[in-house]
Each structure stands twice: as structure tokens, then as C-alpha cells.
């Protein structure tokens, strides 16, 4: 019986220690308070530019969100701003300018007035600049034909790159002045009615890195073409 009583007392003691430990941990949890995660943003739309980037994202419907904070370069760089109350659940946009040409990984957090932070929203994007622009090639000319009776020069264009937005075609007019026309990417030919026979054509194209880009980039130099008369 003594052994049983001692064992029972020991078990009660262990149980008491365990219960106290659990309770102490619970009290610590209570003292720290419940961890609060404000609603994070979603669906980031990235528009690249020349050494800059525009971001738009869908805000959480959480009314406690009052700020956002954005990090990149392993959190060495950051940007923060206020979230207007009337935009909760709507779209918010910011411009990061300057942002040197390159690729970036981002982390974005939503914050409430008490400084509680959401789980991160991670995404990546790229900016463009002089390096990208230096590698651009002009849209090419397929052929030319001059109608001497109509005094019209026809320039036939090759298919442009998908990100081409325009090509400037320069020529010397019959009045010996330099003139230019803008060729749209969907245009397959250009007719010049005042071209001075024997003069040289020059052309240079402009592009966007992608359809959502906010800036255009122009090839570094004009290409030239001598028109052969039949």
C-alpha cells in the first residue's frame, strides 16, 4: 500500500508540474496576445519602363489595412505608403523610380495601424535601360520600287518584331529637304510621292519590351538604303 500511495503521490506531483507548465505557456501566449495577420494584397500587375517600374495590385478587403511596405534587393531597398480607406478591396498603384535596369525579386506586406504585418506577397519583375536599347535592330526593308511615270517610290517592309511600335522613314524630297514619315507596325508598304530620285533612304525603329511596358525604346542608329532605279 505504501508503494501504491507513493506512486499515486508521484503521479499527482508530475501532473501538477505538467499542468503548471502548460498554464504558464498559456499565460505567456495570452500576454503576447493573438498573432494578427492583416489581409495581404493579390494579383500584382507589373509594367516595366526605362529604369523604373509601375506596380498595381488588388488590395485586401480587410478594413484594418492602413499601409503597405515593399522590399527588394534582399530588403536593402524598400518603399512604403498609405492605403486610403476608400480603396480597401480596390486597386492601388505605385511607381518605383528610379530602379536601375535589371531583374528584381519583391516582397510586399500589408500593415495595420498597430504595426501587424501580413504574410508576404512575393513576385518578380524587370526594368529596361541602355543595355536593352543598345541591342535593338531596326525593322528591315524587303524591297523598293520606283514608278517613273507616277513619280512614286514604294517601300515594302518585312514583318516587324512583335514589340515594334513604329518606324521612322527619312528621305530627301524633290525640294531637296529632309522629310520623314512614320510607319506603323501593321503597315506592309509606304508610298512616297515626293522622293528625290537617287537619294538615300534612312530608317530607325522604336519598340516596347512587352505590350504592358510604360516606356518605348529606339534602336541606337539609323540604317540606310540606296534605291536602285531601273
Describe the structure.
The chain has 230 residues and is an alpha+beta fold. It has 2 domains: 86 residues, Immunoglobulin-like; 94 residues, Immunoglobulin-like (Sandwich). The chain is built from 2 helices and 15 strands. The strands form 4 sheets. Strands 10, 11, 13, 14 and 15 form a 5-stranded antiparallel sheet that branches. The chain has a 4-stranded antiparallel sheet with strand order 4-3-6-7, with no helix packed on it. A hairpin with a 4-residue loop joins strand 3 and strand 4. The longest helix is centred in the N-terminal third of the chain and has 31 residues. It is rod-shaped. The protein starts with a helix and ends with a strand. The N terminus is likely disordered.
Helix content: 10-25%
Sheet/helix structural class: alpha+beta
Q: List the uncertain runs.
A: 1-31
- Spatial gap, N to C terminus: 125 Å
User: What is the CATH topology descriptor of the largest domain?
Assistant: Immunoglobulin-like
Return the CATH class of the largest domain: Mainly Beta
Number of DSSP helical runs:
2
**Share of residues in strands:** 35-45%
Q: Please, how many domains?
A: 2
CATH superfamily (homologous) name of the largest domain: Immunoglobulins
Architecture per CATH nomenclature, i.e. the level-2 architecture of the largest domain: Sandwich
Largest sheet: 5 strands, antiparallel
Evaluate the radius of gyration. Answer: 33 Å
User: What value does the average pLDDT take?
Assistant: 88
Order of helices and strands: HEEEEEEEHEEEEEEEE
What overall geometry do the principal axes of the alpha carbons give?
rod-shaped
